[in-house]
Write a structure and sequence with these properties.
The protein contains 10 helices and 7 strands. By secondary structure, it is an alpha+beta fold.
């Protein structure tokens, strides 16, 4: 279920709960009043319907059967709608209960299905009110009441549709904004790559998948050699451009299933799912050599760039912290060996 669908479901449940809270006590009060004033059948129908709604509500709250509760309310309210429309209730006032029906339908069935259902209900209402002889009915309403009821029901339906459409649009906009904010929280502002938070989540997922599928998962931490000297000599703007260009280079070189992220500062991390440590060594060495040979030019100024890389895989460490620690140790060894190299050296490549 998407976040938008979840938000719509929560909203629908709140509206239906509110209708239940309002319907049950009101129907109980007016049903009791009608029964005590000589309208036994009508009074008992109100009390009985409120009891059914209350029973469904408690069943939903105790057993979590939302689908049953939703379908039961939609069906029972529809039958009750036609009962009140046809019987007229007490002195023709039964139709006043029906104005909540459009709100209930849109809340339960959604905008599109609700529109179709209400169109059918209103059409049936017109036939019942203006052609009662077709159904063998004797109604208590005069012509003005019939016209005003249909007109007001159409108005309430349009308003309920407009409100539901606004709610759906607002939920969609909120979902888009939330997704954009989540993406920003997981994205490095400078390079556009995943940031430390985003890639940490990706590593967790890849570790779970590698364990489930029994596949080796490798990571590489890359560090720009002497990056402080680049900043000191050429300025931080050039340093930022170096990081951006390196990010593009890494992103363009790895496979579609791989992930590249900015780990922090001048460090990048490359995730290589379903990749042995031997295959990872081959890949990162090709990238490292390509970066060493590339001419990084900024405003006619050539900047020499190289990277040191530390390699690790789940063949030797299956946990998150262990995997990162192994890659960090390998990166430290690469720097100790003079930089612009990958450690550990994997001589036998598959």
């Amino acid at each position: 279920m998407t976040k938008q669908e979840h938000s719509g479901l929560v909203s629908a449940k709140l509206v239906v709960d509110l209708l239940c809270y309002l319907t049950v006590p009101l129907l109980m009060i007016f049903g009791t009043k009608s029964y005590l004033t000589g309208h036994e059948t009508y009074g008992l129908s109100l009390i009985g319907f409120s009891g059914l709604v209350l029973s469904s509500f408690f069943a939903y709250k105790f057993f979590g059967r939302w689908r049953f509760h939703r379908n039961f309310l939609a069906t029972s309210y529809t039958f009750f709608y036609f009962y009140l429309l046809i019987s007229g209730g007490e002195g023709g006032t039964g139709i006043y209960w029906l104005y909540a029906y459009p709100l209930l339908v849109f809340s339960i069935m959604g905008m599109h299905v609700g529109t179709l259902v209400l169109a059918a209900i209103l059409t049936a209402s017109v036939f019942i009110l203006f052609l009662p002889g077709m159904f063998g009915l004797e109604l208590v309403y005069n012509s003005n009441t019939k016209m005003r009821f249909i007109g007001s029901m159409m108005f309430v339906t349009i308003m309920a549709y407009t409100m539901e459409r606004a709610r759906v649009s607002a939920a969609l906009a909120h979902s888009k904004v939330s997704k954009a904010l989540e993406d920003l929280a997981r994205t490095d502002e400078l390079t556009g790559l995943l940031n430390r938070r985003g890639v940490s989540e990706r590593i967790d997922n890849e570790l779970i998948r590698s364990q489930r599928e029994g596949q080796e998962f490798s990571i590489v931490i890359c560090d720009v050699d002497y990056f402080k000297k680049i900043n000191d000599r050429f300025g931080h703007d050039i340093g930022d451009q170096v990081l951006v260009q390196l990010a593009e280079k890494l992103q363009a070189t790895v496979r579609g299933s791989d992930s590249v992220a900015r780990w922090g500062g001048e460090e990048f991390i490359v995730l290589l799912p379903n990749t042995s440590i031997e295959q990872a060594y081959q890949l990162i060495e090709r990238i490292r050599e390509s970066i060493e040979q590339e001419r990084f030019m900024y405003s006619s100024r050539r900047v020499k760039v190289s990277i040191s890389c530390g390699l690790a895989s789940t063949k030797f460490s299956s946990g998150f912290s262990g995997l990162l620690k192994a890659a960090d140790i390998s990166l430290y060894e690469a720097k100790e060996e003079g930089r612009n190299c990958t450690r550990p050296i994997i001589k036998k490549a598959s």
